[in-house]
Amino acid sequence: MAEKTVSKHLINLEKYFSASNPILHKASQTFHQLDQLEYDLGLIDDDETAATKSSWWPIVSLIGGFSTAKSEFINRYLNNTLHSSHHKFTVHQYTPQETNATLPGTALDADHRLPFFQIAQKINAISNSEDNQVNAFLELKTVNSERLKGKLFIDTPVLNSTRDPAIQSVLTQHVLDMSDLVLVFTDLFEAPPELIEESVKEIVSQQDSNKFIFVIDHSEISLDSNKSNEIISSWQRRLAEHGIHTGQFIVLSESDTASLAEIDQRLVNIENDRSYRVINTLEKSIRAINDIYIAEVEEQLLVWKDRINMSTLIILGFIVTLMLFAEISMGIVQILFDPIIGPIFLVILIAFLMPVHLMMAKVHAKFIIKDLKKRQKKLHLTENLSGLFEKSLTFWRIILPINESVAKNKKTRLKIHTLIEQCKDMVQELNDQFSSYHVPDDYQNSNTTEQTDFTQQL
């Protein structure tokens, strides 16, 4: 297999994390191994990388309803006066310049370091439009605030029934998936149910991730601890009706520095949250090779084999029909039983059907490739499913009853297993930063035996 070029994105990541974060430095190297595997399977091109699926910045997202609670909190927390774009997903990034700037959504779409890289493909696929609509839904704001250093804030738009709900749903899911911390302002749940249905559904599906803080805004009044606890209990009961049973609750009240200190404490740990998220994204990408890409392609391989076999049988049936007519009119079938003419006719028939079978394979492959591209858009995949399919169109797979893709082999399975084990090792290293314990020798020997057994099973 050809050696894949290391993408510039990964080179920059390795340089950046080589001194600041050894675990993420290892993760970037594992991403390159994953890239090589996907490149060998035809899933990505030489200049592409799976590392762009996850933002390597620590990310805090904010979701709210119709009140000004969210925008006022952002201004107060970042010590800035920012104009809130109520209809766009706004990424706030630190700048050392004194003047803040607002940049279009294309700045986010084109920069692989930022969380909406190549999101325009998804937006255009959902809207079925050739026009680039990314600027209608996204923007980037550079903000001179020390609290933004080393992290990104994503301000989600106010709910709006006139905007495309499908695109808003996909972007909201995208934001929540990549976020390390999510501040959900409780005025969200006071909006009409039909507007918040998708957002609530996504929060419920991810509520066990421990990244949600539900912010109850009473910043205009002073509250003692007993009153704050009563308010929290009331909101816990209300959110339970939506199926939300976990998450941290914070009440913002006038001159209450303790609540902001709680948020600050969570932001201190966001670097670690980011590391776990990146490794989790890496492991998901590795498992997706078997669980999604190979499975989708092999399903289409079965359809493809059925179609070309049926086409060849139809042509063979046509030949048999002609022979029957020839037998009726001229009695030609008896000649085929001749010990010399019969084998010659069989060789000629095979020589005719072989290129026909190969031609049918190519014709039907074009239709399958179109179907795979549609499927790829529907699943919002960046990997090229048709590339893996084309890699599987070998001569012997056309001729013989082989329905598995080229990726279904011992080498690929072993590589996937090795990469997953590397992810587990990185998670253990992260855990060891918070606690340490002695690993018995017999446990290590047991792990070595299990690895050997697995390799032998392959």
Folded structure, characterized:
Helix content is 59%, strand content 9%. The protein has 458 residues and is an alpha/beta fold. It has two domains: 212 residues, 3-Layer(aba) Sandwich (Rossmann fold); 126 residues, no CATH class. Strands 3-4-2-5-1-6-7-8 form an eight-stranded mixed sheet, with helices on both faces. Helix 8 links the parallel strand 6 and strand 7. Helix 11 crosses helix 14. The chain is elongated, with a radius of gyration of 29 Å. The chain starts with 7 loop residues before the first helix and ends with a helix. The C terminus is likely disordered.
Q: Would you kindly provide a brief summary of this structure?
A:
With 458 residues, this protein is an alpha/beta fold. The protein has two domains: 57-268, P-loop containing nucleotide triphosphate hydrolases (Rossmann fold, 3-Layer(aba) Sandwich); 283-408, no CATH class. It is 59% helix and 9% strand.
Compute the number of structural domains. Answer: 2
Arrangement of strands in the largest sheet: 3-4-2-5-1-6-7-8
Strand and helix order: HHEHEEHHHEEHEHEHEHHHHHHHH
The description of the largest β-sheet is: 8 strands, mixed
Distance between the termini: 21 Å
**How does the overall form come out from the CA principal axes?**
elongated
Question: CATH topology of the largest domain, what is it called?
Answer: Rossmann fold
CATH superfamily of the largest domain: P-loop containing nucleotide triphosphate hydrolases
CATH C-level name of the largest domain = Alpha Beta
Round the Cα radius of gyration to an integer and report it: 29 Å
CATH architecture heading of the largest domain: 3-Layer(aba) Sandwich
Helix content: 55-70%
Low-confidence stretches: 448-458
Give the strand tally. Answer: 8
Please count the helical segments. 17
Mean pLDDT across residues: 84
Structural class, from secondary structure content?
alpha/beta
Beta-strand percent range: 5-15%
